[in-house]
Amino acid sequence: MRSHRRPRLLAPFLLVPLMAGCFASGGGDDSGSGGKDGDGDGARLRVALAFPPAEKLSPYGADATLLSRLGVTEGLTALDANGSAAPALAESWRRDGEKTWEFTLRDATFQDGGDVTPAEVAASLTRATEAKPAPAALAGVTLDAEASGDRVVRITTAEPDPVLPLRLSSPSLAILSKGAYAKSDRVDPVGHATGPFELTEVNGATSASLDRFDDYWGGRAQASGIDARFIADGTARANALRTGELDIAEAVPVAQAASLDKETRRDTATTRTTSLLLNASSGTFKDAGLRAAARGALDTSVFAEDVYEGYADPAAGVYGPAVTWAEGKRTAPVGRAAAKEAGGATVNLATYDNRPELPEVAQVVKQQLEKAGFTVKLTVREYSRLEGDALDGKFDAFVLARNTLLDTGDPVAVLASDYTCDGGFNIAQLCDKGVDRAVAGAEKIADTAKRQDAAMAAEARILGSDAVVPLVHQRIITGVADSVQGVVLDPYERALVGTGTRR
Predict the structure, then answer these.
(1) Which residues, other chains included, contact 133 with Cβ-Cβ below 8 Å and sequence gap of 6+?
(2) Do 164 and 178 touch, CB atoms closer than 8 A?
(3) pLDDT per residue as tens digits for the range 449-478
(4) How far is CA 300 from CA 34, 124, 306, 365, 470, in A?
(5) Cis bond leading into 359, ω under 30°?
(6) pLDDT tens per residue across span 125-149
(7) CA dist 403 to 274, 317, 372, 475, Å?
(8) 401: left (phi over 0), alpha (psi -120 to 50) or beta
(9) What angle do CA 428, 431, 435 make, to 5 degrees?
(10) Does the model's pTM come out above 0.70?
(11) How would you classify the pairing of strands 375-381 and 197-203?
């Protein structure tokens, strides 16, 4: 169904990180960034990432977040600690009419030595608009970028886009030099980005080497480079940190947390929610009454304390406590159907094992549904082997960990992509006119507070459909060696290593 949907390999489960102040600065939670005149000769950092490159480091898909987490790429804007757009390669911006924005660039240099000019920025954004499939941040958006003078980029959208500065903070809209596009078959970020660390070598799905980029506009990084390893097994990551082979290990499994010293583990509330998605267009859960029965059968209180051992918060809705404004604006679900008897109805439930807690979550869901009278078959695979089937609606139910603000930082964007008829990541297969109207209305609102109100009104309709049952809001555990300072613990999961990260 809806074959145009954009594959989002790994995006639902890429990992964490809170920065003091603005995430754009590349600083950390323990220290500031290295100044341009500082010694900047710190040791190389040994970092373990949980997910390997899946798309040849294309900036337009899930690998975009790998690049931003390692400090390789950046966009015109970034997200600050409050979820607002903050300066990055653009030092300021202004709106010129309903459809046009002007972004004034700071003095910056590409890693291949060229200047970051309006023409280069416009060309890079144009390439992103032409990508197939399009980056998630551009879903439903048509834009045109052009140089305007020595320092200004003018961006015009086909329809008014009140959150364009937020949208441009997406890792998938990172700015690259023209050298990145020299190969016809793919975009190559190696040596063509603007961040504080430059990729020098990528060894497939095994490891990558990065050197400090000394001409970074934000000051020289305090670490001289990064030796990154891709280690899918969470126990192996924790063991390598414990034995001194690593300085930083992301996404330490809950089951391994107790094996690390208290000073070594950092848990961060994130904007990621684990939910049960019910296929609203075909199979058992096409019946709203059976969706209501499934929702009623789930005791969600057990997930935070039992499965996540306290490293999570009980689910309240699509948005969790890391979205600090949401709870005060949340309203009751709208339009819920009356629950029917399960009557042995068959449910094909699926999840992935890249995040080790998810199979356990799915097992608990299976048990609770069976207790309510459903017949449940559980499928667990690596995410890349499930994604296509999930997007095509081949499962009745799917346990998914989803970062609600990863793609754009805009709370409305995840509702549009995940729960509208033409949404590009609509695993729930939900197509409800009331939901579509509510989301479309929210997308038009420029005022921040009013947009948030409209997002919560749309959430109430989505929850009322019972196509999604939020289970838990995740806290992510990052393993950090005692000798390391300045790790970036970002709730939006876009950053991990900054200019101030050192050992």
Answers:
(1) 6, 7, 60, 424
(2) no
(3) 899 999 999 999 999 999 999 999 989 899
(4) 45, 44, 10, 9, 8
(5) no
(6) 999 999 988 888 887 889 999 999 8
(7) 9, 13, 30, 11
(8) beta
(9) 100
(10) yes
(11) unpaired
